[in-house]
Design brief:
- The chain has 129 residues and is an alpha+beta fold.
- It is built from three helices and four strands, in the order ααβαβββ.
- A hairpin with a 5-residue loop joins β3 (105-111) and β4.
- The longest helix is centred in the N-terminal third of the chain and has 12 residues, at 17-28.
- It has a domain at 42-123: 2,3-Dihydroxybiphenyl 1,2-Dioxygenase, domain 1.
- The chain starts with 16 loop residues before the first helix and ends in a 6-residue tail after the last strand.
- Strands 1-4-3-2 form a four-stranded mixed sheet, with no helix packed on it.
Length: 129
């Protein structure tokens, strides 16, 4: 059967890719390879019940991505939202608004060095069906 099995990557333009990689490395702890990208293995996310990859178009007039002017937002799964936010704060990056505590996890939003909104998501284990 021919079908989509997941998201293979997130690729985007940046005014200075090296500076953007540096920001994500310093502020969020992402380890980049010499080739300029980072790989997140499915087994890492699988170790956190409730983690999943979401593909969802939003209405063209959504305000959810604000204050970014970009037509997309990056959602990164984290294993400890509080610790990631402490790391962000050490680099002068604070959350945009309140930390959201919802049925599927906790969320915080930050802006990256290029003004893109990044959603940080600590998944909550799903309740048994």
């Amino acid at each position: 059967m021919a079908g989509i099995i997941g998201i293979g990557g997130v690729f985007f333009k940046a005014p200075d890719p090296a500076a953007t990689c540096d920001w994500y490395g310093r502020v969020l702890g992402i380890e980049f390879g010499e080739w300029g990208g980072a790989v997140f293995l499915p087994a890492t996310a699988a170790a956190h019940p409730g983690a999943a990859t979401v593909f969802a178009p939003f209405a063209a007039d959504t305000e959810y991505f604000a204050p970014s002017a970009e037509p997309f937002m990056i959602n990164l799964m984290v294993d400890d939202l509080d610790a990631v936010l402490v790391r962000c704060g050490e680099h002068g990056v604070g959350p945009l608004g309140a930390i959201l505590d919802e049925a599927n996890g906790r969320f915080a939003h930050v802006l990256d060095c290029d003004g893109r909104k990044v959603e940080l998501w600590e998944p909550r284990p799903m309740a048994p069906a």
